[in-house]
Amino acid sequence: MGRVAAPLREQVIAALRQAILDFQLKPGQRLVERELIEQLGVSRTTIREALRELTSEGLVTVVPQRGAMVSAPSLEEAIDLYEVRASLESLVVQHFVERASDEEIDKLRETVRDVAKVAEKTADTREILGAKDAFYLVLIAGARSAALQQLIEGIQARVQVLRATSSRSRDGRTRWWPSSRPSSTRSRRATPRWPRSSRRSTSARRRSPRCTVCARPKRSRPARSLLSFRM
């Protein structure tokens, strides 16, 4: 019995997680246990265990007197999340520079070109983020740090939801914020979006992607930021 229950629980968690990432379950939407039980055909216990796991991942928030709902991060929470992610990524870049093989560096260059091609041909957020995910897979693999990989994977689902919601405007076109904002905390807090006067056009961003990791610097030189057009 135990062997059957464990995979079922994981399947339910994966199904709910994917529904959140695909926006079938939208930020702020209530997650009613009865409805989930009917839709997934599982027990109340399994649903509750799945919701607890997704709560620990930050994808679900439990509000007193209201129950569980899909997390909808505030601006302050978004800033904190991106700052944590940026700190982890700087270490990943440093390790990549020190440990990656020439083949992995070539692979990283290729993924950067792929991101540029996808951004040039489509404004579909999922396709662009999918290309960027491929970049990060190569980067993390080349860093060869299991500890950093675990930490980044721990916040990746929250980042995926956040960057997808924040990079799509109401009319469906892609925006290049908030992760394209200035790097200092003070600038981000003072200016949630790029000022019109200093915002580069989308076409300009697409034509000039840069990757500061692909060219291996001297080992004594500290690693720089990841992608100039980060999302």
UniProtKB/TrEMBL annotation:
InterPro entries: GntR_C (IPR011711), TF_FadR/GntR_C (IPR008920), Tscrpt_reg_HTH_GntR (IPR000524), WH-like_DNA-bd_sf (IPR036388), WH_DNA-bd_sf (IPR036390). Keywords: DNA-binding, Transcription, Transcription regulation. Transmembrane segments: none annotated. Residues 171-231 are annotated as: Disordered. Gene3D superfamilies: GntR ligand-binding domain-like, Winged helix-like DNA-binding domain superfamily/Winged helix DNA-binding domain. Residues 6-73 form the HTH gntR-type domain. It comes from the Bacteria. Residues 175-185 have a biased composition (Low complexity). Residues 186-209 have a biased composition (Basic residues). PANTHER family: GLUCONATE OPERON TRANSCRIPTIONAL REPRESSOR, TRANSCRIPTIONAL REGULATOR, GNTR FAMILY. This is HTH gntR-type domain-containing protein.
